[in-house]
Design a protein that fits this description.
8 strands; alpha+beta; three-stranded antiparallel sheet; five-stranded mixed sheet; 60s Ribosomal Protein L30, Chain: A
C-alpha cells in the first residue's frame, strides 16, 4: 500500500454506525446502519459527519457543494447520468470492464483477471490506461460521488480476504484520484467474500467474485 494513502489520523467519535477511514482524507467514513449507505467525510467536516450519522445523509454532498460543485436537481440527474453512461461505454469498450445502469447509478465491474494478480493488490500496469479513461470521464462529469468497493472469492481466511479487498479498492481509488479527481468524492471499502455475484463452488464463479466495483451516483442535495 503506498504511503500517500496511509491514514493520517483517527477521529475519536462515538456514533451509532459502522465506521472506517477514508485513506485520502484521514477522516472517518460512516455506513448508515439503517440503510447501509456509505458516508464519506469531507475535509474538516466533523460536524457534518455527526449529522450524517444521525440523518442518513451523505457528508460528501455537503463537502462538495461547499466547495462550489453544483448539485443536480430533479430530472437533470437522469439526463446527466445518461450522458456519462454513454461516454463510459465508449471509453471502456473492449477493456473487460462492464458498465451497468441501475436507476441513476452507474456501476463499473472490474474483474481481477484484468486488474490484479491472484492474492495481490498491485494494479497490473496495462490496467492503468483503463483507469485513466475512467478518470477522464469523472473529470468531465464532476457532479457525481464515487464508491469504490473491493470483493474477493471465498478462498483464504475472512480477515485476509477483507484486508485484500480493501487494499485493492484503495489501489484503484488511488490511481483515479492521482489523475485529478477530488478525493472528497470517494467512499472506499472492502467487502471481502461477503457479496458474491456467483457461486464460489467453481473456478469460474470465483473469478467473477474477485472484482472491484465502482458505483457512480449523481450529486444531489437533500
Amino acid at each position: 500500500m503506498k504511503s500517500n494513502i496511509l491514514v493520517a489520523a483517527t477521529l475519536a467519535l462515538t456514533l451509532s454506525a459502522c465506521t472506517s477511514i477514508n485513506p485520502f482524507t484521514g477522516q472517518q467514513q460512516i455506513s448508515n446502519t439503517a440503510g447501509g449507505v456509505g458516508i464519506g467525510a469531507g475535509v474538516g467536516a466533523v460536524g457534518g459527519l455527526v449529522a450524517s450519522a444521525a440523518t442518513g445523509t451523505d457528508a460528501r454532498v455537503g463537502a462538495l457543494i461547499g466547495a462550489g460543485v453544483g448539485a443536480l436537481v430533479g430530472g437533470a440527474a437522469g439526463a446527466y447520468m445518461d450522458q456519462q453512461e454513454q461516454e463510459l461505454r465508449a471509453q471502456l469498450q473492449g477493456t473487460g470492464v462492464s458498465v451497468t445502469r441501475v436507476g441513476d447509478d452507474i456501476i463499473l465491474n472490474m474483474p481481477s483477471n484484468i486488474t490484479f494478480d491472484v492474492g495481490a493488490s498491485n494494479i497490473k500496469p496495462q490496467f492503468r490506461d483503463t483507469l485513466q479513461s475512467v478518470a477522464l470521464v469523472l473529470q468531465r462529469f464532476d457532479k457525481t460521488i464515487v464508491d469504490v468497493l473491493g470483493h474477493t472469492d471465498s478462498d483464504g481466511s475472512d480477515q485476509f480476504n477483507l484486508n485484500l479487498s480493501r487494499e485493492r479498492a484503495i489501489a484503484v481509488a488511488n490511481v483515479i484520484s492521482s489523475l485529478g479527481i477530488d478525493p472528497r468524492r470517494f467512499y472506499i471499502d472492502g467487502k471481502g467474500e461477503t457479496s458474491p455475484i456467483a457461486s464460489n463452488a467453481t473456478e469460474a464463479g470465483k473469478a467473477m467474485n474477485r472484482r472491484v466495483e465502482i458505483k457512480i451516483s449523481p450529486l444531489r442535495q437533500g
